[in-house]
Design goal:
There is one protein chain. The chain has about 210 residues and is of the alpha/beta class. The chain is built from seven helices and six strands. It has a single domain, classed as Aminopeptidase (3-Layer(aba) Sandwich). Helix 2 links the parallel strand 1 and strand 2. Helix 4 packs across helix 7. The two termini are about 30 Å apart. Keywords: Hydrolase.
């Protein structure tokens, strides 16, 4: 694990970011951020007591805040939940389909029987080239900028990926809460902000620079 891991990264966003790309609000890419679990479904629970549903909800909320305050609302971002509520998987994908989302990003944390297991994984639906390109950007950024071990891009038949049609969907597994170091890391406010910034930077690059 790299020492860079616990650093807080800040990307400088120029004033007039929105105008710099010639994008009017109605032309903004539509992103659905999906913080997993919620309500009675806590997801994974870390050995330090941190709950997956809380970690991913905080990341999603920070993505929304930073998109507004640092990125000039350059992306039209919607969340599948804005409170600690359990939303069905079907309703999560229905939102993406109703909005005709350009990208669907589901955020999760991992868990394993072996406490030594660590690192990030990005899941996509097989056969979606755009999702594969986006997943490659996420794995590279999470590894190179945040110092997380890269466990690679994997194929998963998850409902939230399967039922979003041709929309590029990715499911991020941001570390193992069963690993003491990663559980501690994911419980820090600075880590939440770093994840959110990485998500935004990756999406901005995907839509405006690639």
């Amino acid at each position: 694990m790299k020492g860079i891991w616990f650093c807080f990264f800040i990307w400088i966003v120029p004033v007039g970011f929105h105008d710099a790309f010639g994008q009017e609000k109605y032309q903004r890419p539509i992103i659905v951020i999906d913080p997993g679990h919620g309500g009675t479904d806590s997801g994974a629970t870390g050995i330090n007591g941190v709950r997956e549903k809380d970690v991913v909800f905080k990341i999603a909320a920070e993505v929304l805040r930073l998109n507004r305050e640092m990125f000039g609302d350059s992306l039209a971002i919607y969340s599948t939940r804005y409170t600690d509520t359990l939303i069905s998987l079907g309703n999560r994908t229905k939102l993406a389909n109703a909005l005709k989302a350009d990208v669907f990003v589901s955020i999760h944390c991992n868990q394993a029987i072996r406490n030594e297991a660590q690192g990030i994984e990005v899941y996509i639906k097989r056969g979606n080239g755009k999702a594969a390109r986006l997943a490659g950007s996420f794995t590279a950024g999470l590894n190179q900028k945040l110092g997380l071990k890269n466990r690679g891009i994997k194929y998963g038949n998850f409902q939230v990926l399967r039922e979003t049609g041709n929309c590029p969907g990715v499911l991020l597994e941001l570390g193992f809460l069963s690993n003491a170091e990663e559980a501690e890391h994911n419980d820090k406010k600075s880590s939440i902000s770093a994840y959110a910034l990485l998500v935004l930077e990756t999406l901005v690059k995907y839509f405006y620079h690639d």
